Amino acid sequence: xxxxxxxxxxxxxxxxxxxxxxxxxxxxxxxxxxxxxxxxxxxxxxxxxxxxxxxxxxxxxxxxxxxxxxxxxxxxxxxxxxxxxxxxxxxxxxxxxxxxxxxxxxxxxxxxxxxxxxxxxxxxxxxxxxxxxxxxxxxxxxxxxxxxxxxxxxxxxxxxxxxxxxxxxxxxxxxxxxxxxxxxxxxxxxxxxxxxxxxxxxxxxxxxxxxxxxxxxxxxxxxxxxxxxxxxxxxxxxxxxxxxxxxxxxxxxxxxxxxxxxxxxxxxxxxxxxxxxxxxxxxxxxxxxxxxxxxxxxxxxxxxxxxxxxxxxxxxxxxxxxxxxxxxxxxxxxxxxxxxxxxxxxxxxxxxxxxxxxxxxxxxxxxxxxxxxxxxxxxx
Length: 380
Known about the structure:
- The termini are far apart.
- The chain has helices spanning about 15-20, 20-30, 40-50, 105-120, 135-140, 165-170, 185-190, 205-225, 235-245, 295-310, 325-330, 345-380; strands spanning about 5-10, 55-65, 65-80, 80-85, 100, 125-130, 145-160, 195-200, 255-265, 265-275, 280-290, 315-320, 335-345.
- Helix 3 (about 40-50) packs antiparallel against helix 9.
- The model has no long low-confidence stretch (mean pLDDT about 95).
- Strands 1, 2, 3, 4, 5, 6, 7, 8, 9, 10, 11, 12 and 13 form a 13-stranded mixed sheet that branches.
- With about 375 residues, the chain is α+β, with helices and mostly antiparallel strands.
- It folds into 2 domains: about 5-155 and about 335-365, Aminopeptidase (3-Layer(aba) Sandwich); about 160-330, 3-Layer(aba) Sandwich (Aminopeptidase), CATH 3.40.630.
- The protein contains 12 helices and 13 strands.
């Protein structure tokens, strides 16, 4: 018997998107989906971030026998003279994945979704942040004739659902910065009254207050190290985080995100927000009081989330980056993901050529300024 063919639709309106809610969430549950793949997370990304800044929907939706079996939410925008296609997200540091029913996962299906995105969602440039190197999408993207850039990043996943309990897991670890699990919290407790609280969707005002506090901490850090991501200063991104933290729990009583607050003598010294998938949680954002940095309050909240994940049978995606705590808590389970840029048209190639020219000119001007400064200093 010949299997029925896939039907691939491109969803372009908010009404069509919202109509997928129940089917999308059912698919997400069947697939054990990650935080950023849920309908709620994608809907809030659209309503709070993408739509207000002028993106347009291009959701690839796949059906077999009228059942939704895969979705790849994309958005299209215009950047000066060029059109750009990218995954729908709050546009901070988000993975590129396709949500697929595990009963239907195949290379053939992923290739069909890829072709639909290229052919039915035409653009000059295709941006694909953080594509896992083991993903079929990564192979398709890196073999595309229009590949312009590919930058690799390490990331870590702690497979904590496999651990028996917190005590045995902690005992199996070495030290991080010379400390065993629990040592940093005990040191903080010697400084005063310590409280740790995990907020829920009902803590609306406190969620908003702590998200604002975290963003202020992150902005202060960004100023010091000169890493000023646009999302840090975006009111839309802030509103997205608050809406996510305050969104009602799903039908199983599980929130989509939670904020942990660490208090010392009644004042926050660290906060850490995670997004919750079906079986894996994701670090979303964290901040700490610089005045207490020697007490490592941020590290204490990370450890507390690790313990929570062990006790709740969840894995923990510690995110992209090479910080030392990531291989420690993941027991060295590091992988790689690449952020990829593709020119889908000849006009798209022009955009990369223009940007390359601008970068080279800026570098030349900087070199000339350094040369003039050196000559001036030699004359003194």
